[in-house]
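Thread amino acids onto this structure.
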């Protein structure tokens, strides 16, 4: 577990507190940025990638409890430490129910803060690693299914669009048979890297099994998902895979239909994927709800 090098967003309307925490965390090798309220913090998290947020509760415009709830909705694996001087008014239970990973009362000593901060991050890393595919470093199937259920609930609640892109590597068995499993593993890791460079922060990318990958795309209709799939298809085809001449992938795309269960949603993407395989590979096929 790393104990330094985290990118930290510190949210507090008191300059002295922000300065203290910046100096404290920077002394341990962490990179810090600050915000003065929840609204500014949400903008900064949307624009950049942070490993952790440390926030006060009592702030103008948007308080720390509301900020924690809002961040937890969109950034499920982002650890949040909530701090307050008003421990009689706010409880650890309230903060944790909002989505916080830890709660600390002010005033606190530098030693106590650093101990709590690093313990929180160590626990978070253990939890986070349990959701990762050990070979490629992307999310595993269980994590994907958990996120899918959460996104379906949000899609139904807010009337948004939600799509899936499923793809696998064409003739991957030939790669393993002709070049060995080490080369096969290299191809899987390269495919994951190419994909991660070409998707959005809010997209949920996972290894679904074997040579099969899947992307969940919130706030995206089937045409938007088809466009991403086509972009990825071309990027992968053009990518140099060491000693291999060319690697291609076939893609299936589906969009969520109201009242559809998660299994059928995934099944339609899978059917579209196998349609792409049957039509010659290295192509994108879609299966919209009304065609089922």
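Threaded sequence (292 positions):
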């Amino acid at each position: 577990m790393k104990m330094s090098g985290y990118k930290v967003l510190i949210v507090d309307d008191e300059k002295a507190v922000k300065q203290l925490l910046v100096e404290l965390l920077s002394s341990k090798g962490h990179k810090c940025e600050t915000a003065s309220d929840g609204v500014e913090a949400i903008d900064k998290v949307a624009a950049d990638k942070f490993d952790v947020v440390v926030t006060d509760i009592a702030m103008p415009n948007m308080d720390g409890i509301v900020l924690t709830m809002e961040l937890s909705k969109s950034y499920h694996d982002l650890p949040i430490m909530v701090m307050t001087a008003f421990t009689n008014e706010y409880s650890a239970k309230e903060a944790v129910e909002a989505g916080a990973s830890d709660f600390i009362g002010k005033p606190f000593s530098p030693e106590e803060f650093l101990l709590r901060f690093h313990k929180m991050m160590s626990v978070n890393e253990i939890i986070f690693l349990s959701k990762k595919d050990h070979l490629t470093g992307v999310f595993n199937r269980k994590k994907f299914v958990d996120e899918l259920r959460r996104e379906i609930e949000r899609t139904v609640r807010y009337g948004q669009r939600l799509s899936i892109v499923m793809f696998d590597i064409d003739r991957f068995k030939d790669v393993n048979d002709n070049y060995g499993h080490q080369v096969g593993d290299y191809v899987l890791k390269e495919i994951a890297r190419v994909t991660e460079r070409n998707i959005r922060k809010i997209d949920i990318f996972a290894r679904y099994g074997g040579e099969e990958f899947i992307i969940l795309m919130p706030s995206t209709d089937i045409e938007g998902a088809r466009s991403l799939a086509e972009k990825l298809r071309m990027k992968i085809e053009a990518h140099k895979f060491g000693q291999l001449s060319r690697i291609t992938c076939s893609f299936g795309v589906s969009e969520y239909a109201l009242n559809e269960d998660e299994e059928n949603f995934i099944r339609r993407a899978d059917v579209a994927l196998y349609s792409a395989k049957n039509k010659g590979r290295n192509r994108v096929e879609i299966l919209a709800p009304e065609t089922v």
